[in-house]
Amino acid sequence: MVSRKILIALGVFAVLAIGIGSVCAVQNVEIDGMKFCIPDEYKEDTSLATEGVTNEDGFKIYNRTYFDSSNKMIHISVFHGKDTDKLSLDDLKEPTDVKKTIKGYDGLLDHDKDVGLYFFTYIKNGKVSIVTVEDESLLEKVIV
Predict the structure, then answer these.
(1) CB–CB of 76/57 below 8 Å?
(2) How is 11-31 classified by DSSP, letter by letter?
(3) This protein's superkingdom (predicted)?
(4) Least enclosed by CB within 10 Å: which of 15, 53, 95, 118?
């Protein structure tokens, strides 16, 4: 199985490669049936969105990226595939991950100090969601 960090890195690098631009404000969003709440000051960059793109490993991937006026980012990836309904957090755990519960969801929290990002990964309804933020406190706001 493709490493979760590789999927995260691809999403983050796509954001950095394409650039930053804001389009429209949103509050409550649904990504492949998963609900999230984006603070009003963040605007979606629709040029970075992917909608059910299937990668070479057969995962359907959905991505949304939001920026505030100082270009702080919220990135959400939701993916699923043939066997994601059988995954556990232990299957996804990386050595630097810490188990944490946010809004009732057991998940894995990683802080990459080199890039200043927090990653929270959790599984719901056979889908893996990864919320990436620069400010850890945003996780409580974004995850519904």
Answers:
(1) no
(2) HHHHHHHH-----EE-SEEEE
(3) Archaea
(4) 95
